[in-house]
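Progress narrative, Year 2. Work on Migration and invasion enhancer 1 from Papio anubis advanced from sequence curation to structure prediction during this period.
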Amino acid sequence: MSGEPGQTSVAPPPEEVEPGSGVRIMVEYCEPCGFEATYLELASAVKEQYPGIEIESRLGGTGAFEIEINGQLVFSKLENGGFPYEKDVSICSVGRTSGSSYPNSASSRHSTPLAH
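Result:
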């Protein structure tokens, strides 16, 4: 969603994610770090675009902002040092990554962050 030519969103259109679709997002975040607002911003955007997706949170350790989709880690702030970009947490990328279970943030630096 950066609007740059040649880039496309890999998430399915909202109408393709039905209520009760079985997609579950869990966000673990550091409350003392002030990341609750970031989680709430992300949760609001997900619920607006994909009302059929279940998104939940739990408190994590210092500096944590970890995102799992259907139990698979797709983004780790502890590993990447920043907040996620749309392509980092695409529900279409679940199960399609090779090597590590989440992308390297260095490849995401030219995209628009989901939350900050």
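Confidence is low (pLDDT under 50) at residues 1-10, 95-112. The first helix runs from residue 36 to 49.
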